[in-house]
User: What shape does this take?
Amino acid sequence: MSLLQSFEITIETGDRGNSNVPRFSINGFPLEFDAHHGDTTPGATFRAQGSPESYPHTLQLSGPREGAWDIESATVVYYPEGEPPYTVRLGSVSLEDDADLNIWYERPLPVFDV
Assistant: This one.
């Protein structure tokens, strides 16, 4: 497991959203994003960058503080130390009050023809 220097996330909100700025947690420690723009209102796009500089056992996007949040799609780009970045795309999900979404995925294994 490599040190996760930083990650970038892009979230497309579906029909239900809110005006709260999302947060994330790594290994159970809640953190604010280092930079963000956009919002999580219905139909909006939210982009953020976090720099946990830690070895992730868990990495979670915090759900809404109240109400619900429909995430249409999310893309996460990970920047591990000493390795090239990699991207994971997530499908739609609905988060209810105080729910969290797992956004930590190890680098996929290489695929090749035999």
About this structure: Residues 4-102 form a domain with the Lipoxygenase-1 fold (CATH 2.60.60). The chain has a mean pLDDT of 94.
